[in-house]
Recover the amino acids of this structure.
């Protein structure tokens, strides 16, 4: 007897349906009242094409990049979307098949080529995807859509047109870069990527892109490596998705999720694998936490260690009384927890003395400092992920509030606000509704940290004619302020930003 168990939120499948791009913006139907001060654009990235002809993409990170924009002007809202014209997308549309291997989908050789040409094509090297579906961020006066490879794609934030592809390898020594750079208020961009270090061993480089200067030269031309972190395994780099930054320190959390480069290179060439096939776990290493002085570009020779966990997103990192506090969204088993791990910046302090946390740091006989974190959010089968804060004012500084996407059995079905000091939470949730990462937008005259709104794209695939909408919440109590509905489905989006007018 066969029994199929359906997820309690079965409509989530709408998040993964292919949609068409729009030739021009459409007007959204607004209920409630858009705040008069909310002027600008919400830009978001995500997959929008989940198959090419009869060939499906097999992983959420593989669908072709779709760029979305909600414009706010004088209380009205419009919605626009266009596919990013990456090489992966253009070639797939031209050849009507998947041409470049993605994270979980292998691109088979052209069946029209003979066996000899297909065989030799395996040895031309790995063709890296430029499918920029993860995030969008500013560099100088320009905006780039990105994934986690060495390619970023410049886009026009007004028209959503694709301008050009940029290969970071041509400017700085990295083999890839995360989709979560830190952008400081003066426009300086920091990011991290894998690279080959001394004696061809692997390392992690922190790169810095300066703000736009008076000469108006593209800041990417002035990119530089500011510090290099060592790799715990010479030939197996850890997967890196984000990192921490304060006014004085850079924090890199190296997890046991490893990329086997030998497997990557050999299997890709000989029998055809995807990126996901080359991941493995080495939990015996635990987690290594690396710290560097930001201004001097100097690695601190302190060995921070803690027990194994997996990690995608940092919430915030800040300094307090000689300590570094690193708040993370961690994954360990089926439990998701945000942890606060104070790191003493002075090696003479071997115990945490901060009064507001139970986290500890103990100097061991092998000269490592063992960190025991404090869980600040946990729930059975629930996770607090895709965290956002009032980044412009509190990024890298002591803060109180984080906004996140609530995951139920890994399906997004709520929006959460977390007080990281008191652990108090606020929740927005509606039946059969699937929100995206919440973006905090501060009131221009805000006096308090949470004075503003939270924006999220919500998919509501019920029987109604408007299956998706832009939700606007009061950031203080997570109550609804307004929503802007569109008469079309919007697939899942990962990350984005609000660009003020």
């Amino acid at each position: 007897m066969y029994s199929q168990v359906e997820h309690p939120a079965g409509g989530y499948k709408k998040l993964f349906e292919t949609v068409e791009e729009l030739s021009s913006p459409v007007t959204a139907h607004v209920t409630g009242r858009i705040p008069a001060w909310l002027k600008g654009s919400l830009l978001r990235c995500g997959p929008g094409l989940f198959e090419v002809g009869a060939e499906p993409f097999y992983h959420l990170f593989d669908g072709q990049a779709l760029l979305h924009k909600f414009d706010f002007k004088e209380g009205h809202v419009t919605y626009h979307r266009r596919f990013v014209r990456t090489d992966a997308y253009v070639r797939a549309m031209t050849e009507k098949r998947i041409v470049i291997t993605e994270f979980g989908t292998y691109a088979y050789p052209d069946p029209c080529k003979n066996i000899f040409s297909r065989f030799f094509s395996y040895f031309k090297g790995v063709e890296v995807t430029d499918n920029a579906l993860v995030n969008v961020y500013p560099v100088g006066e320009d905006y780039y859509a990105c994934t986690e490879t060495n390619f970023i794609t410049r886009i026009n934030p007004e028209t959503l047109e694709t301008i050009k592809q940029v290969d970071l390898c041509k400017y700085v020594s990295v083999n890839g870069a995360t989709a979560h750079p830190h952008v400081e208020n003066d426009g300086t961009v920091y990011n991290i990527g894998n690279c080959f270090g001394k004696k061809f061993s692997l390392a992690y480089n922190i790169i810095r892109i300066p703000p736009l200067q008076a000469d108006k030269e593209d800041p990417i031309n002035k990119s530089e490596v500011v510090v290099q972190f060592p790799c715990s395994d010479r030939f197996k780099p850890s997967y890196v998705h984000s990192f921490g930054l304060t006014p004085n320190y850079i924090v890199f959390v190296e997890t046991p999720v490893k990329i086997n480069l030998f497997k990557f290179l050999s299997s890709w060439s000989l029998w055809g694998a995807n990126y996901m096939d080359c991941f493995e776990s080495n939990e015996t290493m635990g987690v290594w936490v690396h710290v560097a002085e930001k201004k001097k570009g100097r690695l601190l020779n302190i060995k921070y260690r803690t027990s194994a966990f997996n990690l995608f997103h940092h919430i915030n990192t800040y300094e307090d009384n000689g300590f570094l506090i690193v708040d993370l969204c961690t994954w360990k088993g089926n439990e998701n927890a945000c942890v606060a791990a104070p790191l003493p910046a002075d090696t003479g302090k071997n115990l945490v003395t901060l009064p507001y946390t139970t986290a500890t740091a103990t100097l061991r006989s092998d000269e490592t400092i063992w960190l025991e974190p404090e869980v600040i959010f946990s729930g059975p089968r629930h996770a607090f992920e895709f965290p956002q804060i009032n980044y412009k004012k509190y990024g890298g500084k002591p803060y109180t509030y984080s906004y996140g996407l609530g995951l139920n059995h890994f399906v997004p079905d709520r929006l959460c606000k977390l007080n990281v000091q008191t652990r108090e939470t606020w929740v927005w949730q509606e039946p059969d509704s699937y929100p995206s990462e919440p973006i905090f937008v501060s009131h221009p005259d805000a006096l308090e940290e949470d004075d503003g709104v939270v924006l999220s794209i919500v998919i509501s695939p019920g029987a109604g004619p408007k299956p998706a909408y832009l939700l606007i919440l009061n950031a203080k109590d997570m109550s609804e302020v307004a929503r802007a509905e569109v008469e079309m489905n919007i697939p899942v989006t990962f990350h984005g930003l609000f660009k003020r007018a």
